């Protein structure tokens, strides 16, 4: 019996829920950054990436505390 290493492991409902929660937190933080800049357009990607980094860093600090 061979194992196909290219097959993706099935995701669990819990991991999908965690991903949705992470995306929601990033979306909210990115919007906060947009508002803090006076709602000026053209920085969507910058806001998203900064928000993503902030949320992941916050989660890491919480997990290691």
Keywords:
65 residues; mainly alpha; 2 helices; 69% helix; globular
Secondary-structure map:
Blueprint: H1 13-36, H2 44-64
Helix pairs in contact: 1-2
| Strand content bin | under 5%
Q: Determine the number of helices (DSSP H or I, runs of at least 4 residues).
A: 2
How many domains, in number, for the residues? 1
Question: What is the multimeric organization of the chains shown?
Answer: single chain
The radius of gyration computed from the alpha-carbon positions, rounded to a whole number of angstroms, is 17 Å
What is the number of strand segments?
A: 0
pLDDT < 50 stretches: none
- Separation of the first and last Cα atoms: 44 Å
Main β-sheet description: none
- Structural class of the helices, strands and pairings? mainly alpha
- Which sequence of SSEs, written as H and E, runs from N to C? HH
Mean pLDDT: 88
In percent, how helical is the residue content?
Answer: 55-70%
> What spatial form do the alpha-carbon principal axes imply?
globular
């Amino acid at each position: 019996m061979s194992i196909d290493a290219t097959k993706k492991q099935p995701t669990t409902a819990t991991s999908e829920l965690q991903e949705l929660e992470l995306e929601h937190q990033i979306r909210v933080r990115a919007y906060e950054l947009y508002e803090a800049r006076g709602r000026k357009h053209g920085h969507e990607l910058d806001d998203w990436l900064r928000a993503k980094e902030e949320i992941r860093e916050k989660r890491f600090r919480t997990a290691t505390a």
